[in-house]
Amino acid sequence: MDELVSLFHGFATVAQPFNILVMIVGIMLGIVIGVLPGLGGANGVAILLPLTFSMSPTSAIIMLTCIYWGALFGGAITSILFNIPGEPWSVATTFDGHPMAQKGQAGEALTAAFTSSFVGALFAVIMITLVAPLVARFALQFGPAEKFAVYFLAFASFVGLSKEPPFKTVVSMMIGFALAAVGLDAVTGQLRLTFGMTELLNGFDFLIAVIGLFGIGEILLTMEEGLNFRGNAAKINLKVVIQTWKELPKYWWTSLRSCVIGCWMGVTPAGATPASFMSYGIAKRMSKKGKNFGNGEIEGVVAPETAAHAAGTSALLPMLSLGVPGSPTAAVLLGGLLIWGLQPGPMLFVEQKEFVWGLIASMYLGNLVGLVIVLTCVPVLAAILRIPFSIIAPVILVLCAIGAYTVNNNPFDIVMMLVFGVIGYLLKKCNYPLAPLVLALVLGKMAEEAFRQALLSSQGNLGVFFSNGLVSSIMVLGLIALFWSVIQNSFSRLMAKPA
After folding, report:
1. What beta strand segments (E) does 113-243 contain?
2. pLDDT tens for residues 314-329?
3. Dihedral (CA of 302, 303, 308, 310) sign
């Protein structure tokens, strides 16, 4: 009941005129980011994070999350009209969405994609509303050992459950830990890895790193590939929308199943991309029209879009309740909370109730506003792809440089942004994932602090991480997640042996 009252207070906060304006601007910016292939939600949030410095934390998080919702919606437009996935999780949408557009059913495909995205997000937000306070209340019992166990579970899940090769994930994570270690040691007060440079006394600024890694790195990669957009025209009118909405209830079971898959993948760090592929694959296998998948089947659009949006939204659950991000975008948002002086985790629900419930309320309204905007503005948004990338790229580069400079008003930060941009470009060229690097950069210091505090309290005894049922359970879950592929392979071989 308390949660319901708090949620209504959250709606009252979001309904303030400035927050509504911020929400609409965020959705529009997010859709533009989602429409531009390769830029992505995490990159967009990282680049536009400095815009929120002068806002209150509540308005700032509303804007950033709405950029994220907008990017999730926008990715479907390029997938369906141009056969170019705006986001990695939109790849599965191209399988049936683009064939529908080629058959003159672009309006139906887009309406199905946007509506399914909204349904997936709504399901995930309801889950967050019901579950997050319970998880946060439970997490209040955590000491340093339990906190480190949760961080360990997050790191281990990224290694063991991610679709990326474990070796590359570990290497990327180690780079993040090394970057997080630069600067003043919070326990001993000694300097580490500064090499006599006074600019590094406080370590690398998280925002500079993510703008360079995500923004500059992606621009360099896109410039190298050279994009040329050619696609189908999009016409959505009220008649098409209503006709499609009448058809969508037929696929309620596919939607519900995709919501569950998406939420599970979002809470674990698997993310939206595997969720969309898994949901599409299961829908293809279980549907009566499975053989027609790939030729323009509307169910083939519903399944991946529902799962991707559910996963993207539910990734915020562990970030809010435990302080552990479930996706790269959630990691960037978590960095934003730290910049605004907020500590993500269970205490956030106690000390910053207005902020938390304002954010959750904005998830409901933001997705509804996003659905209305994308349904009414598709032709305009698709026209963005007609602008030559040679014009768009310099604009984004200038935005990145301004964003980096405004952090400390220091030109050195622009240099560091470019250095991180080159690092990001090289890592992407070599197919090393950036998400584990960002995760380690954000959580590295907190994990180290919890680890050292736990060891100090136990006089160096590592058994403290298995000293009670709670911490032991989390550590065991972490170990299972870390070696999940080995366990899975062993189980498969065992089952394959003839009796």
Report:
1. 183-184, 191-192
2. 888 777 777 777 667 7
3. positive
Helix axes 57-82, 353-383, angle to 10 degrees: 30
Q: Which two tokens stand for residue 111?
A: 């309406």
Q: Which residues, including other chains, have CB under 8 Å from residue 127's CB and lie 6 or more apart?
A: 263, 314, 317
DSSP letter, residue 183: E
Cβ–Cβ < 8 Å for 326, 316: yes
d(CA 51, CA 60): 8
Measured between alpha carbons, how far is 138 from 150 in angstroms, rounded to an integer?
13
- Report d(CA 495, CA 492) in Å as an integer: 5
Owner of token pair 């019901």: 130
Between CA 26 and CA 70 the distance in angstroms is: 7
CA distance 244 to 237: 11
Q: What are 32-89's pLDDT values in tens digits?
A: 777 765 566 666 777 777 777 778 888 888 888 888 888 777 777 777 776 666 566 6
Contact of 309 with 117, CB cutoff 8 Å? yes
- Distances, alpha carbon 2 to alpha carbons 141, 354, 383, in Å: 20, 13, 46
* 177 to 46, 78, 153, 183, 252: CA distances (angstroms): 19, 36, 16, 12, 44
Q: Which residues of 270-300 are buried (b: 16+ CB within 10 A; e: fewer)?
A: bbbbbbbbbbbebbbeebeeeeebeebbbbb
HEC sequence for 44-100: HHHHHHHHHCCCCHHHHHHHHHHHHHHHHHHHHHHHHHHCCCCCHHHHHHHHHHHHH
Q: How many CA atoms lie within 13 A of 381 on its CB side?
A: 34
